[in-house]
Amino acid sequence: MKVNPALCDDWRLQFDKAMQEAAGAIKGPAKVDEATTLTGAEYKDGTFTYFYTVASAPPDDGWKAYMKGMWCQTDQFKKLMDFGLNVRGVYSTEDNAPIGEIVVSSEVCGI
Fold first, then answer.
1. DSSP state, 59?
2. What pLDDT digit, counting tens, does each position of 24-57 carry?
């Protein structure tokens, strides 16, 4: 089998462009649940990032492990990870105070 590196580079550029367009198509604010709002997304350097605000900051960091477990089971995120992408969530309060972030990947999720 012969592989043309130029074709691989071209495919990667097209893929990156498609991911950037997909991230740009996510418009916020959009309520995820009664406490969480998706405010936007971006794609850069192999990471698809979602930005969220929450009504109040969690009392401790236990929410991170819970969210990682949930994200590892989400079909949409599994599809992104199948392409070798990282999925990152950046959380802040409604008044823009940072809460933290979560990053999942096929390695983190054992996929």
1. S
2. 999 889 999 999 999 999 999 999 999 999 998 8
pLDDT of residue 42: 96
DSSP per residue, 18-62 = HHHHHHHH--S-EESSSSEEEEEEEEETTEEEEEEEESS--SSTH
How far apart CA 35 and CA 46 sit, in angstroms, is 29
Neighbours of 34 (CB within 10 A): 7
pLDDT in the model for residue 1: 62
In what helix (H) or strand (E) does residue 63 lie, and over which residues does it extend? helix 62-73
What is this structure's pTM? 0.86
Domain hosting residue 69, numbered range: 5-109
The domain spanning residue 43 has which CATH number? 3.30.300.250
Cα 101 to Cα 4: distance, rounded to the nearest angstrom: 38
